[in-house]
Design goal:
Order of helices and strands: HHHHHHHHHHHHHHHHH
Distance between the termini: 53 Å
Helix content: over 70%
CATH class: Mainly Alpha
Number of domains: 1
CATH topology: Na+/H+ antiporter like fold
CATH architecture: Up-down Bundle
Shape: globular
Strand content: under 5%
Radius of gyration: 21 Å
Largest sheet: none
């Protein structure tokens, strides 16, 4: 009888290894009581394994998208008429805070560019918070941009946010009790099983349709933003969807964590130690600056300290929304601020960057060694 041969280069085997290593990370983070173990656990395990082993891990984009749809649905459920009015009232401050944060990033990018020895437009594109995929795509559309630096700066910022924000929130600076995303979202009224199944199927279809529509109309992060907007509209209208199983929410976090852990490719960087050090320092400064902005928001609107910090943190709506749910912050306020910044960055910033880059190339033509193959 022939032995069963395993093709180590097959996507199925690589996917199995990714799930296996990611699960080990979850178990370790659960044992040491780290915040967000289902996100930080697989992300850390895969990042380390990718660096110190020759294993080629694999995580399909559609699996990550599945996780984003679930998180988007859960975030959409947090929107009510009351939070909608709060959001409208705070819209001017959303604009002000977003403008201040982006201005700070533009200024810090000047120093990062000089220390790293990389052209300013590439560093600026890499430092803009809240739009990893969109900024990388934008970099591809403009000649002469250093895509490796853009991707690296975006990924380092995102990973620092996901690691540092939970640690800050669970530090003595804030008095927060540890809980789980599931326990904050599974409260629901008892309804007949057949009606529950019908509602689940209906809202699954609605979430998928919203995600596809958002993708068709080229929304930023469509698999997250589509379900959030669609479910939020229904929820505000009085049509409430069923809450989700805690196991499904854990799987969603796991899928996002695995994806993030495989984003960073250190082998593509030059001057690794210098570049990594500068990127980390810049990311930490950005977090501290957003922390300062959160205190202004507390004074002006009386928002809770944790909610305010998560609203200002230069991460993404999905990561900050997950953390907000874990620590029982006001998810709708956090998501509103994050989504406004994400929409502004993804719709307003790209044309502004393109205009700036045209001006920059006229004033100071890019050096040959910075050109990328088109």
């Amino acid at each position: 009888m022939e032995k069963l041969k395993v093709n180590k280069d097959s996507n199925s085997f690589r996917l199995f290894l990714t799930v296996f290593i990611g699960t080990i990370g979850v178990i370790i983070f659960l044992q040491i009581h780290m915040p967000l173990p289902w996100v930080l656990g697989p992300m850390s395990a895969l990042l380390i394994s990718s660096k110190f082993t020759k294993v080629q891990f694999y995580w399909p984009a559609r699996v990550r998208n599945f996780g984003l749809i679930i998180i988007g649905y859960a975030s959409g459920l947090s929107f009510t008429k009351d939070t909608l009015f709060k959001t409208i009232q705070q819209l001017p401050w959303m604009m002000i805070m977003t403008a201040v944060l982006i201005t700070f990033c533009a200024i810090s990018a000047i120093f990062v560019s000089k220390f790293m020895g990389v052209d300013y437009p590439s560093v600026l594109t890499g430092c803009i918070p809240g739009g990893l995929t969109q900024m990388v795509i934008l970099g591809e559309e403009m000649e002469g941009m250093n895509l490796t630096v853009i991707t690296f700066l975006q990924v380092v910022r995102l990973m620092l946010i996901v690691f540092c924000v939970p640690l800050l929130i669970y530090s003595p600076l804030y008095s927060v009790e540890k809980s789980s995303l599931a326990t904050t979202l599974i409260r629901t009224a008892e309804i007949p099983l057949n009606l529950l199944i019908t509602k689940i199927i209906l809202f699954i279809i609605i979430s998928l349709l919203c995600a596809l529509l958002a993708k068709k109309f080229r929304f930023p992060t469509p698999y997250l933003l589509g379900p959030i907007l669609g479910i939020a509209v229904l929820n505000v209208s009085g049509i409430h969807g069923p809450t989700l199983s805690p196991y499904l929410l854990d799987i969603a976090q796991f899928s996002v964590g695995c994806y993030m852990g495989l984003l960073l490719k250190l082998e593509d960087l030059q001057n690794k130690v210098k570049t990594i050090s500068i990127a980390i320092i810049n990311g930490v400064i950005l977090i501290l600056f957003s922390l300062g902005l959160s205190f202004i928001l507390i004074k002006m609107h009386g928002i809770g300290a944790v909610t305010s910090f998560l609203a200002m943190a230069p991460g993404g709506a999905d990561q900050m929304g997950m953390i907000a749910a874990v620590v029982s912050a006001d998810v709708s306020i956090v998501t509103s601020y994050q989504l406004f910044r994400m929409l502004f960055i993804n719709f307003a910033i790209p044309p502004m960057l393109k205009l700036f880059y045209k001006y920059y190339t006229k004033v100071k033509p890019p050096e040959g060694d910075l050109d990328c193959e088109g």
